[in-house]
Write a structure and sequence with these properties.
This protein is of the alpha/beta class and 328 residues long. Helix content is 28%, strand content 19%. Helix 1 packs across helix 8 and helix 4 packs parallel to helix 5.
């Protein structure tokens, strides 16, 4: 199935964080373009996504315990299986994590649901992972309350739950869907609008060895954004991997933040250091659920949340982001 289909927008469950996102309540079309295939995507707000492996691609689903499916696709000549694509074609980006030569390709969730800009009200587009999906509604609530005298329309790219824009590898693989609406129209942005972008929590999988590739890919993403949109840009630094199974993850996040800060300095784009903001609040990782080492941004379930936060944590993060936006 190639091209356009129309489905009802749903409320999506977001992974381990257990958060809900509701970007819209009306039917919406998913447009993938002539060379991509429309595939089911249970985490997408349109329930669809785009496979970018060319014509003849196969749409695949892996059932999840929560009654949803994680969606990927295989190229022409290869079939879906529990082991990935059969026969194996290790020739495309990994999608959810940094790197190439993976045996499956995740579908690209569509960009933001189309909206009509309101004159005099700036637009804020957030391109990021599941943590950004968590704080985007908090940011929307802050600007909607208008207590600071700043109002804006806030939306997220992609329009989905789960891992959102995932890794730098995935952002590049899904590029046209990150800077377009779900109907593949250009984002309606001007110099008075804002694009906030981040990648990092899906990029620590390669450890310190992956920092060089992360730097190269983030440099590419940054250059493309400057060429594609006229809005003000802000890079949102990666928050800690505060309770992941591998103790090497968070030191890698620190290295990725250092690299990102350098990339943004070279591109003359502000870098918001959220890592320092949350660690000043909670101390060094890992954070405990209870007791003196507990973090108020994720307690009493820091261990279960892994890299995510409670609503109180997302409100804390959103307040720092709004402050940075108002300085642009």
């Amino acid at each position: 199935m190639v091209g356009v289909t129309t489905t009802a927008v749903r409320i999506a469950l977001i992974g381990a964080a257990g958060l809900l996102s509701a970007w819209a309540t009306a039917p919406n079309s998913t447009v993938c373009g002539a060379t991509a295939t429309v595939c089911p995507d249970s985490f997408s707000d349109t329930k669809e996504g785009c496979c970018v492996l060319g014509s003849g691609a196969q749409c695949c689903q892996t059932p999840l315990p929560v009654g949803l499916s994680r969606n990927y696709c295989c190229p022409a000549g290869s079939q879906c299986s529990t082991q990935g694509c059969t026969p194996v074609h290790p020739e495309y980006p990994c999608g959810p994590t940094q790197g190439e030569n993976c045996t499956v390709s995740y579908v690209c969730a569509p960009g933001p649901l189309a909206w009509s800009p309101t004159p005099g009200i700036p637009n804020i587009v957030v391109i990021g992972d599941s943590v950004s999906i968590g704080w985007t509604p908090a940011l929307r609530a802050l600007v909607g309350a208008n207590a600071t005298g700043f109002n804006a329309y806030v939306t997220h790219s992609p329009a989905s739950g789960d891992g959102g824009a995932r890794s730098t590898s995935d952002i590049l693989q899904c590029w046209k869907y990150r800077v377009s609406t779900a109907t593949l129209d250009p984002l309606p942005l001007t110099k008075n609008d804002y694009v906030l972008f981040n990648a990092g929590l899906h990029d620590y999988n390669l450890g310190p060895a992956g920092v060089e590739q992360y730097t190269q890919q983030l440099t590419n993403i940054t250059a493309r954004l400057k060429q594609t949109v006229s809005a003000k840009l802000l890079f949102v630094g990666t928050t800690p991997a505060h309770n992941t199974p591998n103790p090497a993850d968070n030191p890698t996040v620190e290295l990725l933040n250092t690299a990102a800060k350098s990339v943004m300095a070279a591109a003359n784009i502000p870098f918001l250091d959220l890592y320092t903001a949350v660690t000043q609040k909670c101390g060094g990782v890992p954070w405990a659920d209870q007791g003196p080492s507990a973090c108020p941004l994720c307690a009493p379930k820091c261990k279960a949340l892994s890299v995510h936060y409670t609503p109180a944590g997302y409100n804390f993060i959103a307040s720092h982001i709004l402050e940075a936006i108002q300085k642009l």
